[in-house]
Structure formats: C-alpha cells, structure tokens
Amino acid sequence: MSYSACKQNVKSGSLDSSNPFAAEFNTPRNLPPFDLIKTEHYKPAFLSGIEDNTAEIAAITNNSEAPTFENTVVALDESGRLLNRVSAVFFAMTSANTDSVLQALEAELSPLLTTHSDNIYLNEQLFARIKAVYDDPASKDLTVEQKRLLEKYYKDFVRSGIALEASQKERLREINKELGLLSVSFGENLLAETNDFQLIIDNENDLSGLPANVIDAASRQATKKGLDGKWVFTLHKPSWEPFLKYADNRELREKLYKAMYNRGNNGNSHDNKDVIKKIVNLRLERANLLGYKTHADYKLEETMAKTPENALKLLTDIWKYALPQAIKEKSELQELIDKEGGKFKLQSWDWWYYAEKLREAKYDLNEEELRPYFVLDNVRNGAFEAANKLYGISFKEIDNVPVYQKDVKVFEGYDFDGAYIGVIYVDYFPRPEKRNGAWMGSYTKQMVYQGKFVHPVVYNVGNFALPAGDAPSLLNLDQTETLFHEFGHALHGLLSRCNYRGVSGTNVYRDFVELPSQINEHWAFHPEVLKMYAKHYKTGEVIPDVLIEKIKKTATFNQGFTTTELVAAAILDMKWHTIESPLTVDVNTFENDVLNEIGMIPEIIVRYKSPYFAHIFDGGYSAGYYSYLWSEVLDTDAFQSFEENGIFDPATAKSFRENILSKGASDDPMTLYRRFRGADPNPDYLLKNRGFIK
What we know:
The protein has helices at residues 39-61, 69-78, 81-96, 100-121, 124-135, 144-159, 166-196, 212-224, 237-246, 250-261, 273-289, 295-300, 308-339, 348-363, 367-370, 376-391, 477-494, 510-521, 527-533, 545-553, 559-576, 587-598, 614-617, 627-645, 650-661, 669-677, 684-689; strands spanning 199-201, 231-233, 394-397, 409-414, 420-427, 439-444, 447-449, 452-454, 457-461. By secondary structure, it is mainly alpha-helical. The protein folds into four domains: 28-163, Glutathione S-transferase Yfyf (Class Pi), Chain A, domain 2 (Up-down Bundle); 197-261, no CATH class; 273-365 and 559-617, Neurolysin, domain 3, CATH 1.10.1370; 372-553 and 646-656, Neurolysin, domain 3. The strands form three sheets. The chain has a five-stranded mixed β-sheet with strand order 3-4-5-9-6. A two-stranded antiparallel sheet has the order 1-2. The longest helix is centred in the middle third of the chain and has 32 residues, at 308-339. Residues 4-12 have low confidence and may be disordered.
C-alpha cells in the first residue's frame, strides 16, 4: 500500500484544489500529506475553513424544519471539517516543529479563530435551536451518549456567554481575543528563553561526574553549534537534568539550574510576568461577566471536582503527607553533605545531585546503571506489547509515510481480530523547533460521520535522550514512565468507540483525562513487563532480577521532593485562578506569598514557576493542574483491580477498555468508573503508591 499523497481534484468552498487541505486527505488512512503541506497552505485553508464553517452554521440556523437532535446538534458536531483538518496539523506543528514564520502566522490567526468561535457560541439563533431540543420532552428518549452531547453543547453556549447583554458580549469577545494572543506570546517567549541559553564548557575538568553518554551528547550539541572541542548544555530537560544529577561542579549546577527556573523572568523582551498578570486579570473579568466568582469556579464547574474547594482539599490532604517527608529527605541530604565535608547548606541546585548519591548509598543503585537496558525503541515496543497483552491490539511500523521531521515514526494499530484501529505518530527527540515536555494529540478524532466509522490518527511527542556515540537513545526511569504515560493517552484516543466527535476519545473532563495515561505508567516497571522489553543495548541481556528488585525498592525514593514540587505547582495554579479582585502585586511577590503560606521549603523549587508554567498559561490546564493528582486517586485505585486479578487479567482489561478507554465522555465519568471498579475510588491507594502510608 502506498502512502504517498496525490494532488487534490476537488475543492472545499473557495479553497484552491491544489491546497492539500482542500478535501479529505487523499492518502490511505487519511494521513496528513506532509510531503505536500507547505507553510503558505495554512492561511488560505484557515480562511476557507472559517468561511465553510460559517456557511454550515447558517444552514443550521436557517433550516425551516423544527429543531431536532439530528438537524441541529449532530449537524453542529459534524460541522467544521476543513477547519478541524487544518487546525489539527497546524497546531501540532506550532508545538513540535515551529519556526518564526509559523509563530507569526499563529499570532495573526489567533484573533480570527477566536472571533469565529465567538460567532458560533454567541449565535442566538443557533442557541435557540439547541435550547429547543434541550427543552423538548422527547429528548428523554435519546441515548445516554446523545444526551451527553446535547448537554455538552447546551452548556458550552451558556458558559460562553449567550445570555449576556449585547455590551457584555462585545466585551467578552475582546477578552477572548486578547487572551488568545497572550497565550501565543507566553509560549513564544518560553520557547525563545529555552533556546537562547546555553552553558558552554571548555574545561574537561568541569565534566567531572557526568556519565559518558551525557558528555558525548553535549559534545555533539557543541559541534552542531560550531563549537568543536567544547561541550554545550541546554535548557531542554534531557540536557539539564543529568547535569543537575551528576555534575560535580556545584557552581555550574547552580548556573544551569537558575537559568532553567528563571525562564520568562529575566526582565528582557521575552519576560512573561506582565503577560501572566494580564492573563489572570482577564480570566477573572471573564468569569465575573459570566456570573462566576473566580476563573477556577468557572473552569471547575465542568469537572469531576466541581469546585475549587474540593480540588484544594485533595491538594492540602496530600500536602500534609508530602511536606514532612520532604523535610525528612532534606535532613538526609544535608547529613550526606556534612559527612562528605561540605561546608554549605543544601540548595535547590544541590538536591538532584545529592539525591542521586543517597539513592546509590541506600540502595546500591545508580540510575546510569539502568539506562543501558532502556533503549528507546525497546521501551516503545514494551508499551506496545503490554497493550497487546491487555487489549489484544498490535502495532506495525509503516515507513513510506510522509512525515514532518526525519525522526518521526508512524505505526498502524490493529485489533485482536485483525481489524484496523488507527495510526499513531511518535516524535521523541528534543530540538529547538519543539517546546519542552511531552504530550498527545490527534490529527483525526474518532467518530461516526454520516454513518461511516472514522478511524483515529493520533500522535505522541516527547523530549527524550538523543542517541550518543555508538549508543542508541537510552532513557532514564522518568523518561520511560513518560513514554508509557503518553501512550496511555494515545490508547484513549485509538480505542475510542463513540458516535460523536464532541464526546469521543480524550474529549473528557480534565481531571478524568489523566486516568488512562497514569494507569498505563503502572505497567512500565512491573517485573513481568520489564522482562519483555528491558534489554541491554550491547549484549541483548534481559535486565537481571537484582536490578529489577532495586527499581522496586527505590519506587518511593525521593517522593517527598517529587510530590511537594508537584502539589505546590497545583496549589499555585489554583491560587492564581481563585483571585477575586484584579492582581496588582508583582508576579514574583504573588508566587512567593503563596509558597510561603503553604510552608514550601526553599531547598525545593515549585515544579513550574509561574513565568514558565505553560500548562496553565499556554495550555488547557488553567485551574486544572490538580487534575494529575485527582486522576491519580482514580488510577491507583483502578490498578489495584489489576493487582488483585492479575496485571494482564483478560476480564479486568476488557472491562477497563469497554468502560473507560472506549467511552470518551459518552457517560458521566464517575458512572463509567464505578462500572469498571464496582465502587468509588479509595484515595488511600494514592498515598500508598507514593510511600506515605503502608
């Protein structure tokens, strides 16, 4: 089967037929024709997509027939095909493969897209039709999924301001437009700050303590930048993290760490502090306009938590366990420093380094000892194989597919009966064109369109260790867990079996979406799974039991630190979005006050300081970073079911697939969870998972 794209022979609206977005992609599996897509294709495709979608909305509102679920709600759900098609590719590229031209285009398009969205959700005629269906007694006969879709769109309109006065709607439009632009600015500033700094080392003695693969990667980075004979470390995590863990030079550790946590906070043209202040104040104003006390009240209404108070209660409950453990860990690290003759007090740039030393002293485990067994391709295949044993699905690499970057790989998924499921792209290596972190997204979301099943096309993106010398990409434990995590999101998208786009796949509550990803992490280091994929890159030797036992023993090592930095970030996010009057103080002052109030110890830096907290200022997690912990209550409880019945128990896996992975938002999330587990989740399993209780 050839996956090469062909020129289009049809066109959509006013879009020229030579534009690759003009019609459904003319490729097998409907994959994006990256060999044909050029930067100049995006803008006309967006403009035509807006034009087409506007006409579709007009057709719905002008329909002379009485409003029905099919001619109004389904018609709305199925509208915007061209706009969705180009948006999916464009925004995937602005995250994973951007440049100055795409960034400028994103800034230009943002207000247009915001205006178009407002034109839909502030359309009174359209809402009148949706409300007529919503109020129709006959709607009680709809399926559960149909009721959920109807309720989703009804609430979307209400929460978008459809009931506001004309002047309020106009102000709301202005706020939405400005927020869109500010989000773009935040992301561009952060990417620039990440790429602008480099730690150049020209004295080999300053590499003391660093593993050979890290030194080699830094050498290749220097060569790439025309600095032969030197070593370069960057603010991409695969570069700075091992330096913090292993470099003996304390002064350089401090320099690199401070550069990392001061991104967006340097008083230069890429400073994000004013951007943050504008964002939080505009979000508050919008929430007030819509009748909510705070932005968090507005956001959490459509979540499992429901209120900021419920989310904060979970966070403070965990904090009570995490902070004392972190303080205990701090004392152990200071003791180690003193024992070695250090005449200094532990600082944040020391924690990673001395934690690694303590791990080795306590458990005879140096993480670099493990890395040779975690070859990137093998880890990915391990995630695939675990999914095969759980759900019967399999993956086959296809290498004749156009990709946007040479390192991207593409796999077709097949079900236990050989039926085609969908496609996953994986893009795992850091580069200047890619933002930090790891994420999942979709080029095509699963749905049933005009009676035809639409197979999903998803992607996983990461920033993992580059190959070094003659060694392939070798992951650490954190990167391995991240790969399994993002693949869990991918499974949620690939195994979706919903009828409507609006409720399919990962279109679920923010504090439910992390359940499929986080439960998948539990298989990463299970002994049975490790034996499947953890093989030494030189010898092919399967990871020995002695190392597996060490991994198991260190599973909760340093959890005070890990949990404290995570919970602190979630609390900081919630505090930003529970302000009830416009922020006037300096951003750093606000952040410091929040952290001091909860008793954050200075030896630990909050996981994301505000000027680089992209999740909440350039992503969908505002007032939602707590979701990782809310979902952890679910995932640890859910995995207990596998622990009780067998980690690959067919009946348990079948129930999880049918009740969670395939259902999207087609039913209430707690209803879905109870169907799988037979009870509400027990939060004690989170505390046990992190080693806080037995």
